[in-house]
Amino acid sequence: MRDRGVKTITPMSKTATYSNFLASHDGIGMRSTKGILTDIDREKLAEKVIQNGGQISNKNNPDGSKSIYELNINYSDALRNTGESDKLAIQKMLDAHHILFSVIGVPAIYYHSLFGSRNDKKAAEISGIPRRINREKLDLAILQSELETTPYRRAIFTGLKKLAKVRQGEASFDPYQPQEVIPSDSRVFALKRGDVYCYTNVSDQVVTIETAGTENLLTGEQISYGEYDLPPYGYAWIK
Fold first, then answer.
1. Which InterPro entries match (predicted)?
2. What are the b/e assignments for 109-129, b being 16+ CB within 10 Å?
3. pTM score
4. CA separation for the pair 67, 153 (Å, rounded)
5. How many Cβ atoms sit within 10 Å of the Cβ of residue 100?
6. What ranges in 23-150 are assigned the alpha helix state H?
7. Does 2.30.30.30 match the CATH number of domain 2-238?
8. Terminal-to-terminal C-alpha distance of the chain
9. Which end of the chain has less neighbouring CB within 10 Å, N or C?
């Protein structure tokens, strides 16, 4: 399913490309999952969102039934499993955005994702508006302090800034540069953009990948013998 969807995404033209995002001030839309996810898949996602403190918005169908319209939850909270540590949640958040930064087009980051915000359940409850859960009102002075002193905010903010900076310096990530799905372990999302190999481990296991690149652009680490170990929810841009 992963490869099937990505393989259909090709350059639009020489003057237009894609705007890609994972989260916004609205919920996580489910209408676009038609033909990709089954009704059972969507129900499982809804159950997880509720477990993680979120809410579900439904739409009324002509036959009187209801179907899931969007998931109302902060994106980093949506990625969590029950009982997971903040450290793992941070890694998952960066992992997801590594995919966003790797694919063709222009990545857009919702500011609450950039700043490592969490569910604002109180705002959603008081207003009665589910979307308010991901629209926390921020005080500039408090935010600036928390980006320095709150480990969760700081780790996500600095991690995303690093991804953006490295990406900005690589011509292979030109928004119009085609992408190629490359063979890899089923637990790894793998693309080639220009001369950069993009690997994202979407599992909780260490995965050894085979690659033609010799340097991890994110760490400067040199790669020998064509193999590289991706830690759980780890990622790499290899050139």
1. GH (IPR017853)
2. bbebbbbbbbbbbebbeeeee
3. 0.92
4. 34
5. 19
6. 39-51, 75-78, 86-102, 111-114, 121-127, 140-149
7. no
8. 27
9. N
Q: What is the DSSP string of 126-161?
A: HH--GGGGG-PPPPHHHHHHHHHH-HHHHHHHHHHH
Residues 172-196, mean pLDDT to the nearest whole number: 94
Q: How far apart are CA 225 and CA 220, in angstroms?
A: 16
Tokens of 2: 């992963």
How many other CB atoms are there within 10 angstroms of residue 237's CB atom?
Answer: 25
Q: Which tokens belong to 182?
A: 């490359």
Q: Residue 24 is encoded by which pair of tokens? A: 């916004």
Task: Report whether 179 contacts 6 (CB < 8 A).
Answer: yes
